[in-house]
Amino acid sequence: MSDREFPGTDDLSLPKATIQKIITEILGDKSGLTFGKDARDLLIDCCVEFITLISSEANEIAEKESKKTIATEHIDKALRDLGFPEYVQEVLSVAGEHKEQLRTREKKTSKMEQSGLSEEELLRQQQELFRSATDKYNQGPA
After folding, report:
1. Which of 46, 84, 119, 135 meets the CB 3.0–4.6 Å disulfide criterion with 79?
2. Which DSSP letter does residue 84 get?
3. Using an 8 Å Cβ cutoff, are 64 and 81 in contact?
4. Helical spans, DSSP H, in 5-140
5. CB neighbour burial string for 80-97, b if at least 16 within 10 angstroms, e if fewer
6. Burial class (CB in 10 A: 0-12, 13-18, 19+), 78
7. How far is CA 3 from the centre of its chain?
8. d(Cα 55, Cα 1) in Å, to the nearest integer?
């Protein structure tokens, strides 16, 4: 893959702290192995390149199907087409777990819900603030 194919990949990266955490989890604290900074940076570059390759291929697949959104099945097909079928099972498993987490997570409450006030009370307060601001504006500079 060349820079001509994917312009601007120089400014793409992954968080070093996150990659370091993954490396530490894989190597284990007690293994006695360390991962050099230059090796970590190379690993990050490889990850970005891999993600770019897969997403580009998935995008082409989606476009051929006249889809505007890359879906899980496009990633599945891209991995297979590019010769990475051994990753498909794990990717689909993680995608399923993520979908389940999205379904079961608690919905965030809005500021309106957090206030504990009724919509009518909030509207009254808003109107009072507008009235106060208008009065200050009409009084001019002090």
Report:
1. 84
2. -
3. no
4. 16-27, 37-64, 72-81, 88-104, 111-115, 119-139
5. eeeeeeeeeeeeeeeeee
6. buried
7. 24
8. 13
User: Which amino acid belongs to residue 45?
Assistant: D
Q: How far apart are CA 130 and CA 118, in angstroms?
A: 19
* Number of other CB atoms surrounding residue 6 within 10 Å: 15
Quick check: 9 and 50 in contact, CB under 8 A?
Answer: no
pLDDT, tens only, 56-114: 999 999 999 999 999 999 999 999 999 999 999 999 999 999 988 888 776 777 777 77
pTM for the complete prediction? 0.63
- Please give the radius of gyration of the chain, using alpha carbons only, rounded to the nearest integer: 26
